[in-house]
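Lab notebook page, bench 4
Experiment: in silico fold of construct C2
Operator: M.H.
Input chain length: 205 residues
Purpose: comparison with the prior construct
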Amino acid sequence: MRLSLLLIIALFSACSHQNLANSFSIITYSPKDLATSVQFISHSQEKTPYLSMNIYYPEVNSIRLELEKKQKISLKNRGEAHITVLTPIEVETLKSYGLNMSAIDELAQIEKIQQIPFQVSCLGEGRLGNLKTYFLVVKSKELLKLRKKILDLALQINLTNQTIAFYPEEYFPHITLGFTERDLHIQDGVRKDETSCAISLQEKL
């Protein structure tokens, strides 16, 4: 009985130590630098068009490098940073109702997409088997408002008179940092919101 009790205590201590270690996993960043103003980039000519808010890459790159160092990993990255506002699938859906990418880009710039405020909640991790992706979980009421305005525009020019299968609230804004092999998405079972938080962020002094 005493031996069993000691084993239970030892296992509990080990688990507690692991949780404590995880709680000290912190990445530092500069909210001010992350919010540095950069120019809008249109993705209307991409093979799969999408709408995004362009993000100041040097600060995102700095966060990724610190993550790689602390986690002892090497991540692939795209050499740029953005917050997706409309996915390629959503753009294609809206196009089927008569709203083209040029009109979406125009509205985004009228609404000053590059000046929209956002906050970063944490550093998230998504997994699928041995595949991993890392990202900054973002919160922004203004980006959600922009998605709703895009829906309003689509409703105004709806050529089909059918209910538009675009849902502004189904939105998980994030900034991808890097991934082991490929990025993972909701189709892979990865939900990039606060449920995926893995590492805390701390503002640089």
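Observations: The beta strands are 26-29, 51-55, 81-86, 119-128, 131-139, 174-179, 197-203. Residues 1-24 have pLDDT under 50 and may be disordered.
Next step: discuss at group meeting.
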